[in-house]
Automatic annotation (TrEMBL), chain A:
This protein's record includes keyword Protease: no
Entries under PANTHER family matching the protein: DYNACTIN P62 SUBUNIT (PTHR13034), DYNACTIN SUBUNIT 4 (PTHR13034:SF2)
Family as reported in the entry's similarity comment: Belongs to the dynactin subunit 4 family.
Location in or out of the cell: Cytoplasm, Cytoskeleton, Microtubule organizing center, Centrosome; Cytoplasm, Cytoskeleton, Stress fiber; Cytoplasm, Myofibril
Keywords of the record: Acetylation, Coiled coil, Cytoplasm, Cytoskeleton, Isopeptide bond, Phosphoprotein, Ubl conjugation
Name of protein: Dynactin subunit 4
Subunit description: Subunit of dynactin, a multiprotein complex part of a tripartite complex with dynein and a adapter, such as BICDL1, BICD2 or HOOK3. The dynactin complex is built around ACTR1A/ACTB filament and consists of an actin-related filament composed of a shoulder domain, a pointed end and a barbed end. Its length is defined by its flexible shoulder domain. The soulder is composed of 2 DCTN1 subunits, 4 DCTN2 and 2 DCTN3. The 4 DCNT2 (via N-terminus) bind the ACTR1A filament and act as molecular rulers to determine the length. The pointed end is important for binding dynein-dynactin cargo adapters.
TrEMBL record, chain B:
A GO molecular-function descriptor: dynein complex binding
Biological process (GO), any one: mitotic spindle organization
Gene Ontology cellular component annotations, sorted alphabetically: dynactin complex
InterPro entries listed in its UniProt record: DCTN6, Trimer_LpxA-like_sf
Protein name: Dynactin subunit 6
Subcellular location: Cytoplasm, Cytoskeleton
């Protein structure tokens, strides 16, 4: 059983309509709002720790990674940190073209080095020096000791690896390109097409691309009077609207029928990019018999390859680094940008970042009487492990609300008396309504005489309707929980399950974790946005009442299974 | 306030019997190294033992070959969990590099010539590591495991064969490292005799 530290997840309202609740025992029929069920399969997708959430100031709503719309700001290589313009991306693909490669065996970064090391005594042999006169060169992995000589690839120059590598096959033979094939055919028109085993993925792709381009251009010329200037014909929005108008039959009907049939022909041969699967695997079997398990590539290694690769380690090629992107995030409803990183690759700063943590209170939960001993300072990153909760025993938890706003907030809490799910535990919020002071200057806390607040803790126990502890911008309240028993034979006796079929299936994964759904409603008075409203705001003295309400889930701990 | 920085780690345990040692005259051993145990400890020519390394011969004798490097906080000859069964000590071949924080358990453990045990690895008791092997960082070799020559252990215990064929270059690098370390580490073999 993995340890469980108490946690708080917040539900993003974007999926509010989709939360399906099959009228279980948990939902109170008198309540017109159904309680949120953290154990429902859909809830997985709408619960986030507060750090993951953003906040839209205009909609005054929480936004999660699932509901924001993203836009790419920059593309860059994670290895050389060079920014790649999006025009290059379109022409050269989404991989780095600046000699950044990953090891095909262990995905570590590869380094270029001379195969014959220099005799310079001050160098470690593993750090081969780029000697201008030296060579040949190869790619080296410092982690798993792979080198590109294992697949028979060497380089003449230590720079421009991308170009050199794209011209050579594994084993050192030059790669057959479309241009070579065309030249050959020009010299000798009767030569049969290249045999399939010599056609690699790149050549096949080039053939197929040429074939489609030719077909499209033929199809385009057939649509006379409808010039489609775009390179591939059908990808620009203007072309698309024109095509759509053809289908809806407005205007161009007469012309369309004049042209020849605009049907593309199928690829017929190697030159059209057709490659017939090689079902004769006898050579592979022979190779496997010789090389054994060690010569084969793992599934992960083959999946990392950009093109489909064979089953053997010597068919793997160095992997060019996949580019990454920085993205800005927009609110889905008002289209305002709520997160925008700086465009510079090396900068980790943000131009705009509206995180939920600075708009809604941070909720933390901890046991009132911890069973785990405190962790000594020297072992500090260690996680405290609480003992599992015993069924039918009241437990108290301290829930702390920390206010990030500069105004006082009024918080109202609501939680179902019994947690939803098969094993419903009893929950009581001892103080469901309270006010949290504003996030004022940090030193106020030190200067303020808060003796009277502290003294409460010396009292014997939590009291109903009273705040447990209070500080400058935070308030703690106490939550009482009586965990349910996880024994299935006790399920039937529960009064809530009358007339319904009791699910007697064995304990499912995660069902022993006690999660409490809680509805948080906060109310505060904020300055009205002066720029939005004109003189009328002066009448209201620049204050307006605001509220925000959301569901959150408090993960309390595991229930013991005895 | 005292200007001396105190380590949060517990003090090094130097208690225990002083083992009989058999040192080469060209050995470099820091007097901060810890040698203990009852069996003999042999260290051959031009080997370098860093400060704070711990060499224990309580289970069996320890042999360190020629031109080896044993780095800081290495625990050579650590008693294995099942002390009862283990017999024999640790023997390192020539040109073996044991990087910082590694633990080599005793009990007939052998590390072949030219092998590198990288930072924080653990070699179980009775494991036999071949020649020119690389055990990458934080790897764990189980007790009694046998690694063929030129094996690379990486990525949580995956094995592959090193096909570079450059053992001579590795030896050269060790020789250069030793030449530098001999200047850096003050040697005091007499302390342990």
């Amino acid at each position: 059983m993995s340890p469980l530290t108490p946690y708080t997840y917040i539900q993003c309202p974007c999926s509010d309509q989709t939360v399906f609740h099959p009228g279980g025992a948990a939902s109170d029929p008198e309540d017109d709002d159904r309680a949120f069920d953290p154990k429902a399969p859909r809830s997985n997708y709408s619960l986030y720790p507060i750090e993951y959430l953003l906040y839209c100031e205009d909609c005054q709503q929480i936004r999660c990674p699932r509901c924001v719309t993203e836009e790419s700001v920059t593309f860059y290589c994670p290895n050389c940190l060079f920014e790649v313009p999006s025009s290059n991306l379109r022409s050269e693909g989404n991989r780095c073209t600046r000699s950044c490669y990953q090891c095909p065996i262990c995905i570590g970064p590869l380094q270029v080095g001379a195969i014959q090391p220099t005799t310079d005594a001050n160098l470690l042999p593993t750090q081969y020096q780029a000697n201008p006169s030296g060579g040949p060169y190869a790619l080296f992995c410092q982690y798993c000791n792979w080198t590109s000589t294992e697949i028979g690839i060497e380089f003449d120059r230590p720079s421009g690896i991308y170009n050199q590598l794209s011209k050579v096959n594994n084993g050192g033979k030059p790669k057959l390109t479309l241009r070579d094939v065309k030249d050959r055919r020009k010299d000798n028109p009767d030569e049969p097409p290249v045999p399939d085993d010599q056609v690699d993925a790149d050549l096949q792709f080039a053939n197929l691309k040429a074939f489609y381009q030719q077909q499209l251009s033929e199809a385009n010329t057939s649509l006379r009077g409808l010039p489609l200037h775009d390179g591939l014909g059908f990808s620009s929005p203007a072309a698309l609207t024109r095509i759509m108008s053809l289908y809806t039959g407005r205007g161009h009907q007469g012309r369309l029928q004049q042209g020849p049939a605009d049907i593309m022909r199928e690829a017929l041969g190697t030159n059209d990019g057709l490659k017939i699967a090689n079902l004769d695997e006898s050579s592979d079997i022979k190779k496997l018999l010789e090389g054994g398990w060690g010569a084969t590539a793992s599934l992960d290694q083959r999946n990392e390859q950009p093109t489909e690769s064979g089953r053997f380690e010597d068919e793997l090629r160095p992997i060019a680094y996949l580019l990454r992107s920085k993205r800005s995030k927009r609110c889905p409803s008002c289209r305002h940008i709520i997160s925008k990183p700086e465009a510079k690759v090396v900068s980790t700063r943000f131009k705009i970042r509206l995180v939920a943590k600075s708009y809604i209170p941070t909720i933390t939960i901890r046991p009132l009487n911890p069973t785990a001993p405190p962790v000594p300072i020297t072992y500090r990153p260690m996680v405290q492990e609480e003992a599992p909760l015993k069924p039918h025993q009241p437990y108290h938890f301290v829930v702390t609300f920390k206010n990030p706003l500069f105004e006082n907030i009024k918080v109202t809490l609501a939680s179902p008396n019994a947690t939803p799910g098969r094993f419903s535990s009893r929950v009581t919020v001892l103080c469901p309504q309270f006010e949290v002071d504003a996030n004022t200057d940090m030193w106020d806390d030190a200067l303020k005489d808060d003796e009277k607040d502290r003294s409460r803790k010396a009292d014997e126990g939590p009291e109903v309707g009273k705040i447990w502890e209070k500080g400058r911008n935070w308030v703690s309240i106490v939550l009482e929980v009586i965990p349910a028993s996880l024994r299935l034979d006790q399920q039937q006796q529960q009064p809530g399950n009358k007339g319904e079929r009791v699910d007697m299936s064995p304990l499912k994964e995660g069902e022993d974790i006690l999660e409490i759904p809680m509805f948080v409603r906060m109310e505060w008075e904020a300055d009205t946005q002066a720029d939005m409203e004109g003189p009328s705001s002066k009448d209201k003295e620049g204050r307006e009442k605001r509220e925000l309400a959301y569901w959150c889930v408090l993960g309390v701990g595991r229930i013991s299974q005895e | 306030m005292s200007s001396k920085r105190h380590s949060i780690l517990p003090a090094v345990d130097r208690s225990g019997p002083k083992p009989p040692v058999n040192f080469s005259t060209s050995l470099t051993i820091s007097d901060n190294a810890v040698l203990l145990g009852s069996h003999s400890i042999t260290m051959q020519a031009e080997t370098v033992i860093h400060p704070r390394s711990r060499i224990e011969s309580s289970v069996g004798s320890v042999l360190v070959g020629r031109r080896c490097i044993v780095q800081e906080r290495v625990h050579l000859g650590a008693p294995p969990d099942n002390t009862g069964k283990a017999a024999g000590g640790v023997s390192l071949g020539d040109y073996v590099l044991i990087e910082a924080g590694s633990v080599i358990e005793a009990g007939g453990t052998e590390i072949g010539e030219g092998s590198v045990i990288q930072v924080g690895s653990r070699i179980g008791s009775g494991a036999r590591i071949g020649k020119n092997c690389t055990v990458s960082h934080l790897s764990i070799i189980a007790s009694g495991e046998v690694l063929p020559d030129n094996t690379v252990v990486y990525s949580n215990g995956t094995w592959r064969t090193d096909k570079r064929g450059t053992p001579e270059l590795r030896k050269l690098s060790i020789v250069k490292q030793i030449a530098m370390l001999r200047k850096m580490i003050p040697s005091n073999p007499d302390k342990f005799r």
